Amino acid sequence: MIQPFEFDGQPKSGHVALDNAIFEALPGDTTRLTIHSVFQPAANRDGKIEGGMERSLSESQGRLDELLARLKI
User: Fold this and answer.
1) Phi, psi of 69 (to 5 degrees)
2) Which of 18, 33, 41, 42 is spaced 20 to 30 Å from 69 by Cα?
3) What is the dihedral of CA 64, 68, 70, 73, to 10 degrees?
């Protein structure tokens, strides 16, 4: 899945990254999700990290794990 992404934590809008999400089937009926984000310029990436992107992404993935476990998907 390829999509543009704009992080709300930036001081100004218009800082868009291009995200590429790869879902890979693994043994044991599990899936690996790998997300690759491209930022231009690198200062946009740094601003997102300073704005809490890593923490937010970790929390979002944790909630997704919980939802999938409840749905038994």
Assistant:
1) -65, -40
2) 18
3) 180
Give the separation between CA 17 and CA 1, rounded to whole angstroms: 14
Separation between Cα atoms, residue 5 and residue 35, nearest integer Å: 12
Query: What is the extent of the structural domain holding 11?
Result: 2-71
Q: With 0.85 as the threshold, say if the pTM is over it.
A: no
Question: How many helices (DSSP H) and strands (DSSP E) are in the chain?
Answer: 2, 3
Tokens of 46: 């740094």
pLDDT in tens, 11-30: 566 678 889 999 999 999 88
Q: How many domains does the chain have?
A: 1
What does the alpha-carbon distance between residue 52 and residue 59 come to, in Å, rounded to a whole number? Answer: 11
